[in-house]
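Interim report, section 4.2 (structural modelling).
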Amino acid sequence: MNGALSTARPSSGLASEASPVVELRHVTIAFDGPPVLEDVSFTVAPGETRILLGPAGVGKSVLLKLINGLIMPDSGKVLLFGEDLASLKEEQLFPLRARTGMVFQEGALFDSLTVRDNVAYQLIQEETIPDQEIDRRVREALSFVGLEETFSLFPASLSGGMRRRVAIARALINNPELLLYDSPTGGLDPITSTNIIELIVKQRDVHRTPSMLVTHRLQDAFALCTHRFDTEKDSMIPLPKGITDPTTTFLMLEEGRLIFDGSLHELLHSENKFVREFLE
Amino acid sequence: MAFNRIDRTAKQIVLTIQDYSLFAWRSFRNLFRPPIYWSDFLMQADIIGVGSLSIVVLSGISTGGVLALQSAATLSAFGATAVTGQFVSLTMIRELGPVLTGVMVSGRNASSMASELGSMVVTEQIDAMRALGVDPLRKLVTPRIFSSVAMLLFLTIIADACGILGGAGVTVFMNHQNGTQYFSMAWEHLRHPDIIQGLLKPIFFGYILGSIGCFYGLRTTGGTQGVGRSTIQAVVVASVLIIFVDFLITHVLLTLFG
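Predicted structure of the assembly:
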């Protein structure tokens, strides 16, 4: 993979063509101690997938929650769809959050609701969509993640991998304009991880939804970059040797600081000691 | 060192009171601003109201019975056992009905609210709800608080009635007194301020138990151990606050009505 990497399409200008979906400007946050994130700045352009790498405990999940306005930074700005989150009241944040889909680390499914009600949660709250329409959309979302048979089950009766896939279906049902994945493959076996990565690649290539994915698993991050979704075969296939997806780029955190922002090629050729250690 | 600790604790208490005040105000305001989740109101009313019915009936009957037993023993020394009915009905309606129901229901429901919401916090379900664009305060807290208010009012009326019936049972079958005399004394000496006092208190107590249960639930930190801690705090604070607020309301109403 080293040395001869190139992109399938020119990646330059992604951010410059349209205003970014997400923008962080010099964001710092601390919780009763040293900063968890310090002076972090980056953007997510329309159609772009950003993979946030870093060991456990460096503030990756905190960063995703900041993007969605679930927590606010101590200093700096977070702009979501061009809106400065700090300038909005909590009530004004809900419509913005409804435009994003978030997959939590452990799925965060509502354990007292069935899979149907979990996936349809946003639609049910709108109280204007007929039940038949909700059922149809839930089945469509579950079919996207390959879990139609779980429609009436409760989350407790699903495996860890199935719960993550239901969480992905829940995040996708309202056609979000941004997807946030918090360690979607963490703690899963390799086969289930590959299935989930395939779903993320499918969403990226079929719907072109901009996304931010947090992971510490390099194999998943590289798979995202080196594969594309083939709609005819309905599966993920590898890109030709040396070619990577131009819309998928990397960020890396070290002790709350952003130490890398670039393509897979740049990542693999980085001179940064921490990046090298992480990759090795 | 000790001064620093006192300073920190005092700040913590002030901060908690401030957070609770904002929380209680926002929950109250949500009742008048859409979206209002009526189905959640009904579901919570069923859980809180119907679910607490058995403990309220049993504790009401027992308390009324004990009051009749104790009062008859004391009143007989003055040859005034005839006023047992008046004593039981006034005590139940003005004080024991609302307070006992408030404490019993808070033991059952403030704890259940704190543990349910606390579990949702530690499993990120509350964050997931917010991420899905749904306000947990509107969806989870407001229905619980106002169902508590509405149901505690009815449960208190039931507890009052059960207490008076329990007292009647003891008066007739154990103290061998006249039942008609018991009921006529219970009825004749009842005034409107007594009823107002008895029906005003559960409104406050319902608000306290619902809001404290949800407040401590949503503040849960520290995993499953934290859920246990929140549950204990919710029950203790709600019970103590109910008794303290009862004192304040009683003082104000006695000043107003005499």
